[in-house]
User: Which sequence fits this backbone?
């Protein structure tokens, strides 16, 4: 393989995976959900201004084509903790929920997984 072929292969790999890879893609996808969930809460008068019980509860005009999977292709886990508190969780590179490599968003901000799990353990 010559130098030009290597450069082309690397460029294709970067464009395919994206800068930062699956973790950055996962964080981007999760952060896109934050404003949508906040808008739902702010307009959910019948539900007492609460977050949805499940992502499927969101009307299509709000959720649009937002991804429900992480950068590794695994489904995101949504859990409503209280009417005013939710988590959106990726199982991370190992695909297992409840481990230190998880990516956790709580009410629109990313946090260290084990800190969130210490406060609100996952039920297994």
Assistant:
């Amino acid at each position: 393989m010559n130098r030009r072929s290597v450069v082309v292969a690397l460029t294709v790999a970067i464009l395919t995976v994206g800068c930062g890879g699956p973790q950055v893609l996962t964080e981007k996808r999760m952060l896109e959900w934050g404003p949508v969930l906040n808008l739902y809460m702010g307009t959910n008068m019948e539900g007492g201004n609460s977050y949805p019980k499940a992502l499927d509860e969101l009307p299509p005009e709000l959720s649009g084509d937002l991804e429900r999977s992480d950068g590794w292709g695994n489904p995101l886990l949504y859990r409503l903790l209280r009417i005013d508190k939710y988590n959106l969780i990726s199982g991370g590179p190992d695909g297992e929920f409840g481990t230190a490599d998880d990516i956790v968003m709580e009410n629109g901000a990313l946090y260290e997984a084990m800190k969130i799990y210490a406060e609100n353990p996952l039920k297994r």
In short: The longest strand covers residues 77-82. The domain at 20-119 is CATH 3.30.700 (Glycoprotein, Type 4 Pilin). DSSP finds four helices and four strands in the chain. Strands lie at 77-82, 85-90, 103-106, 109-112.
